[in-house]
Each structure stands twice: as structure tokens, then as C-alpha cells.
Design brief:
It is a single chain. The protein folds into two domains: about 1-35; about 45-180, Protein Transport Mog1p, Chain A (3-Layer(aba) Sandwich). The protein contains three helices and eleven strands. It is of the alpha+beta class and about 190 residues long. It has helices at about 1-35, 105-110, 165-175, and strands at about 45, 50-55, 60-65, 70, 75-80, 85-95, 115-125, 130-135, 145-150, 155-160, 180. β8 and β9 form a beta hairpin. The strands form two sheets. Strands 3, 4, 5, 6, 7, 8, 9 and 10 form an eight-stranded antiparallel beta sheet that branches. A three-stranded antiparallel beta sheet has the order 1-2-11. The model has no long low-confidence stretch (mean pLDDT about 80).
């Protein structure tokens, strides 16, 4: 009888270790999901342009919750300086009649400033699309994601800079996918 009880106990120990291992995996998965989540503010509208852009928020993030007028146009920015992590997010809206048609124009602009392009793409934003480029600074350890959207008589640039490639990508994609644009009604058409 003693031998049977010993085997049952040995089996229970193995089952307990298996359950402990599974619990560890669940906790690790939860931490990864929590770490990868980018918390965003509500969309911040820019006057009567029909444009609204969210910014990352949370511990360590600083920035203005309103658009500021600067020499480049209207600017919305946020910075993260927390526990050795740094990220700069900048969104610039500038009136312009030019239309950006290809990623090559973005690639050329970044290469002129000493960046080496690693990836590029595009994604849809309601009625338009964003062209984006991932580039790395030569000798700077800096990653930049630059996205450009041609709007009605304006251009929107979204720029995310960070030494952490994965973090920069997640923040760029999270902000870029939540940009909202609805062209304002043409005042000539109102009665």
C-alpha cells in the first residue's frame, strides 16, 4: 500500500509542477501584452481642418494636449523619458498644394539627412492613405519612423524617433492607425 501512495504523491508533484509552469507562461504572456500596449489620448482636433490625431499618454509621457503653431506649421508633440527609454513623437500639419505620390520621395528625403532606410509601407486612413518609412541613423543608434499623408491642400507628417526599434514601431503604428480625417465641407456649397 505504501508503494501505491508514493506513486500517487510523485504523480501529484509532477502535476503541480506542470500547473506552476503553465501559470508562469500565462503571467509572462500577460506581461508581454501589457508591455506592448500603447495607451493613446483621445483624438486631438486641429481647428476646422477635419483632422484629429491622438498622442501616447501614461507615466513618463510629456507633451501638449493642443496643437501649437510653429514655422513648419501646426505641431503636436509628445516625449517619453522614463527608466532609460526615450521616444519623441511629432505630428506636423502644413498647408501645401503638393501631393506625395511615392515612398521614394520619403526615402530620398531621409537618405539626404544621413539615414539608412530599412523598411517602408502604406496603410489606409479612411479616405486617404499614409506612406511610411523606417530608417536608422548611421552611427546614432536612432530609429525614425516617418509617415506622410496628403490631405486636401495640406500635408500631415507623423514622426517617431527612438533608440528602441520595437517601441518606435508600436507607437508609430498605434498613432498612425488612429489618425482621423474628415474633409471639412466646402463653404461654397452651403446655402
Amino acid at each position: 500500500m505504501r508503494l501505491v501512495i508514493g506513486k500517487i504523491r510523485d504523480g501529484a508533484d509532477k502535476l503541480f509542477l506542470l500547473a506552476l509552469f503553465a501559470l508562469g507562461l500565462v503571467i509572462a504572456q500577460g506581461l508581454v501584452v501589457w508591455y506592448q500596449h500603447v495607451k493613446l489620448s483621445g483624438p486631438i482636433p486641429l481647428g476646422q481642418t477635419g483632422l484629429a490625431v491622438p498622442l501616447p499618454t501614461g507615466p513618463g509621457w510629456t507633451g501638449s494636449p493642443t496643437w501649437r503653431l510653429g514655422p513648419a506649421g501646426a505641431v503636436l508633440a509628445a516625449n517619453l523619458r522614463h527608466a532609460g527609454v526615450q521616444v519623441d513623437v511629432r505630428c506636423v500639419y502644413r498647408p501645401s498644394d503638393e501631393v506625395l505620390n511615392s515612398r521614394q520621395e520619403l526615402i530620398d528625403a531621409l537618405e539626404e539627412h544621413g539615414y539608412q532606410v530599412a523598411d517602408s509601407g502604406r496603410f489606409r486612413l479612411a479616405r486617404t492613405e499614409m506612406l511610411w518609412v523606417e530608417a536608422h541613423g548611421r552611427g546614432q543608434g536612432q530609429t525614425i519612423f516617418l509617415g506622410v499623408v496628403s490631405l486636401d491642400k495640406a500635408i500631415l507628417e507623423l514622426e517617431v524617433r527612438s533608440p528602441d526599434l520595437d517601441l518606435a514601431r508600436r507607437i508609430f503604428m498605434a498613432v498612425g492607425e488612429k489618425i482621423r480625417y474628415r474633409p471639412p465641407p466646402d463653404p461654397r456649397l452651403s446655402v
